[in-house]
Amino acid sequence: MKFISKMAFLCGIGWGVMMHSQTVNQLINEKGAFRKDTIFIIKSDLKETYLPVTIIKGKEKGPVFSIVAGVHGYEYPPIIAVQELLKEIKQENVKGTLIIVPIANVEAFQKRTPFINPLDQKNLNTAFPGSANGTVTDQIANIITKEIISNSTIFLDIHGGDANEDLLPFVCYYNRKDIPENTKLAHDLSAQSQINYIVSYPYNITQAEPAKYAFKQATQQGVTALSIEAGKLGTVQKENVEMIKNAVYNMLEYSGNYVKSKAKIKNNNKPILLNQQDYIKVPVEGIFYSDFKSGDPVKKNQVVGFITDEFGKKKEDIISNSDGIILYKVGTPPVNKGETLFCIGYTQQ
């Protein structure tokens, strides 16, 4: 059966009350198999938004696998992929529990706003762990931290290239060496995804430092966490939607959360692990030109683009600092000083 309920989080300045008695933890511990669609209402300083959450519980016990899309509301392939998954996933085939956030940043999605929430101009992707008494973005991060991540065995954050980002599909995780079993499971799930590139990020924060990113927050909390990156330039590409869905089904089967799913799309290529990243920052504001695209190989000291002023005069060449492959880059002409222009991935033995 399908239920719809509301959970209201009224969190104005200096006060916060959860108006609904049930938490996600209480819901997932209810007896029996079910699907429930839940809305968290969020208010702050006369601004209001909501966080949609679906909980699908199977008859048999199993892990709690959480899936979040739409942390950036302009990254459409992850959002559309999760919409299709919500329609396709059969409750009777679920083992354990699925917690799904179909659109984490509803306002950015509805207002077609890249990167930030238009209600408070904050980037949800750098807001974790969030705050119960902050602005709406802080509160969304806090709910995901307290209600979703804290109840998860496995946490999957799905992203893509935003409005200006040309991105190569990859799956990634943090290499937290003090919990090697979580890192191994994250790697194994990444390999099961059938996505060609796996990126391992260094994990070097303390327990007291803010994690900023959702799946890094999950990693910090000791949850097995990873992220899919697929889609680019603020459009829906059917092939990337299908890639994300196939990856999720493969991960769910491997984790034991789903059986009798759609047939796997076989990929006979061994995934390529990239365990180092080189970030090229925009040195000066201007108009960016490059013949390179995501997925292209680059060499150390190679010129990969240049920036001009408004009169077409070249201001600076952009030079790669390493041999590697372009994971993502700015794919539109305007650039601002300090932004990430290229992310080059490579392997270090």
TrEMBL record:
Pfam families this protein is in? AstE_AspA_cat (PF24827)
InterPro entries tied to this protein: AstE_AspA_cat, N-alpha-Ac-DABA-like, N-alpha-Ac-DABA_deacetylase
Q: Note whether Transport occurs among the keywords.
A: no
What's the cofactor? Zn(2+)
Q: What is this protein called?
A: Succinylglutamate desuccinylase/Aspartoacylase catalytic domain-containing protein
| GO molecular-function terms, A-Z | hydrolase activity, acting on carbon-nitrogen (but not peptide) bonds, in linear amides; hydrolase activity, acting on ester bonds; metal ion binding
Q: Which domain of life is it from?
A: Bacteria
Going by the UniProt record, its keywords in alphabetical order are: Hydrolase, Metal-binding, Zinc
Q: Where is the Succinylglutamate desuccinylase/Aspartoacylase catalytic domain?
A: 63-254
